[in-house]
Amino acid sequence: MTAVPVSKIELKPTRRRVETLQILGLIGPTALYLLLFFVFPLLIVFVYSFLKRGVYGQLVWEFNVLNYVRVFDTLYLSILWRSFVLALLNTLVCLVLAYPFAYYIARVENARTRNLLLVLIMVPFWTNFLIRTYAWRVILANDGPINLILLNTGLISQPLQLIFTNFAVVVGLVYGYLPFMVLPLYAAIERIDFSLMEAASDLYANGWQAFRKVLFPLSMPGVIAGSILVFIPSLGAFVTPDLLGGAKTVMIGNLIQGQFLTSRDWPFGSAFSVLLMLMVLGATLIYFRKGGRTL
Amino acid sequence: MSNSQKQSNKKAVSVELKNVVKQFPDPSGGVVTAVDDVTLQIYDGEFFSLLGPSGCGKTTTLRMIAGLELPSSGSVLIHGQEMAQEPAYRRPVNTVFQRYALFPHMTVYDNVAFGLRMKQVAKDEVRQRVDDVLKLVRLDAMGQRKPGQLSGGQQQRVALARALVNNPEVLLLDEPLGALDLKLRQAMQDELKRIQQTVGITFIYVTHDQEEALTMSDRIAVMNDGRVLQVDTPYELYEDPESRFVANFIGETNFLTGKTDRVAGSLVYVRLDNGAMTTIETGNGAIGETVKAGAAVTVAIRPEKIYLGRGDAPAEADNAYAGKVENIVYIGTDTYYDMDLPGQTKVTVRQQNQDYTGSANTLAVGDMGYVAWRAHNASLLME
């Protein structure tokens, strides 16, 4: 029997058409949806960012870059900077809290215990995010449980200002995004062959050294995925800073929301949106590059 | 170690296990005893194997020497130092893991240098020693590759180099050739033996492959159910197994049960269950002190030590019994004959095909013939 080289096999035209239809059928609906409700609005935002605001908040079709120039006002730069720092801080805190937990779940031998722990991570999603954030407002309030306990035990004489601070924003962000860090970390650590840790230990590495030289580098895919999943949405977060940060701790998300809804300056809000996207894109690319080297 | 013990051993003891027990919690709430009261002495420079079926506790024993598992009770001494509760990274031993456990994110060079760097050896010395050991395992050109780019045999050699470079007092090998195919495995056996002789380090080798253990080891401990059944040289283990398990696990054996009839010096006369008498010559002189007349015993005789003859047994032959050929299995180098002796007794004979010419000059199924063996070739098992 002689084998026919693969390249010589001619697909019948009807066969090819069937395959094209199959591909369209599989990705078509999603592609169409994203095109209509994501790409198209994005283009609108991009175009609006070069327009002018009219006296009554209407759009004036005069192309200019003044919206982008305005961003360099120190007020806006400080908001950008604060957003960036808070998002980064949130990512770091999530990483530090999630890593040991994810490691523990990955190492649990009993499958039922492991599944239970994974489900527990999901449990908060059963309640609306807004409601959970309001709950934090109660917890951190001046007459909230934390202050009451501290006052009653005599540790403090004046209530601590917890709510409406950067601290409250980070607490709220960490609370909201921790699961997005745990899950990719768990997936990455679970795949690591534990005998590598034994090999490190056999080669004179103590626990910390084995972690630093072997476990952590090998879990980088999870660290990167988790960090991106946490950093990006927290950079544009607006519910948490709005409810827990008050008027003083404004982040980009609040600023954009304000421009669109309160100031009715859609062109400036659009410019800020485009800028936020560029920041996220830049940060992600740098992170991937850096991470890519260690992989 | 006490002085009296030191004097009684000619060679210096490298690793000593004293009454080592390892118990694991069992999912149903009980305990599983993986290693049950193991006592062993392994000498300096020795190639020592732990041999047994899977689940016999050999790997757990090795891991307790490595420090990857801590014993529930008992002592682990390395060159006289108590190490039983020391973590792995404080022990002067290194391990070659079963599936190599090479760090996939590091180059071959960095893998091998890992232990030296952890010990903060000077950079120049690290380079020198890594280069030397890569040469020893014939991988000097592979230093900058990642483990994923190497073949199984090469990965195996990296694992060996990564352990050897640290000059451990003892090298532990956990079925290191298990994942390789037959040809490569045989080549690596020679290579391992060569390397062991070059570096002179004590090797403790875990395997379930009896042939591998026989080929490579100076001494072998045969384990089953968490216990050590016999520790001996390959020759002693094969020729003089002390238990049915050892006789059966290493090589092939015919077992014939019976009762001792009388004992005369090193000769033991056994009345087999089928009524026939057989004579066993034991190696260790005054066996009469341990064997009592009338005791239930098993006689073990290797198939290749049985002579197969045609016609009637000659009168002068030792332990000769007439039998009928029940089955013949030709396996290339040898031929097996299943012989049916009177009284529902069966023995298998293995004959080398030195001058095999088909059925013309050999027995065929259904033919009558006889089997015979020399008294010193049979072993007496007290069970």
Number of strands of chain A: 2
Assign the CATH class of the largest domain in chain A.
Mainly Alpha
Structural class of chain B: alpha+beta
The SSE string of chain B, one letter per element, is: HEEEHEEEHHHEHEHEEHHEEEEEEEEEE
> Are there runs of chain B of 5+ residues with pLDDT below 50, and where?
1-9
Instruction: Profile the largest sheet of chain A.
Output: 2 strands, antiparallel
Largest interface: A-B, 19 and 25 residues
Q: Quick one: biggest sheet of chain B?
A: 6 strands, mixed
Tags for this model:
A: 295 residues; MetI-like fold; 2 strands; B: 383 residues; alpha+beta; disordered N terminus
Structure description:
The complex is a heterodimer of chains A (295) and B (383). Chain A is 73% helix and 1% strand. Chain A is mainly alpha-helical. Chain A folds into 2 domains: 1-48, no CATH class; 69-292, MetI-like (MetI-like fold, Orthogonal Bundle), CATH 1.10.3720. In chain A, helix 1 packs across helix 13 (266-294), helix 3 (74-107) runs parallel beside helix 7 (166-190) and helix 7 (166-190) packs antiparallel against helix 10 (220-235). In chain A, 29% of the residues are buried. By secondary structure, chain B is α+β, with helices and mostly antiparallel strands. Chain B has a 6-stranded mixed beta sheet, with helices on both faces. In chain B, strand 1 (13-25) and strand 2 form a beta hairpin. In chain B, helix 3 (108-118) packs across helix 4 (123-136), helix 3 (108-118) runs parallel beside helix 5 and helix 4 crosses helix 5 (152-164). The interface between A and B is medium-sized, with 19 and 25 residues.
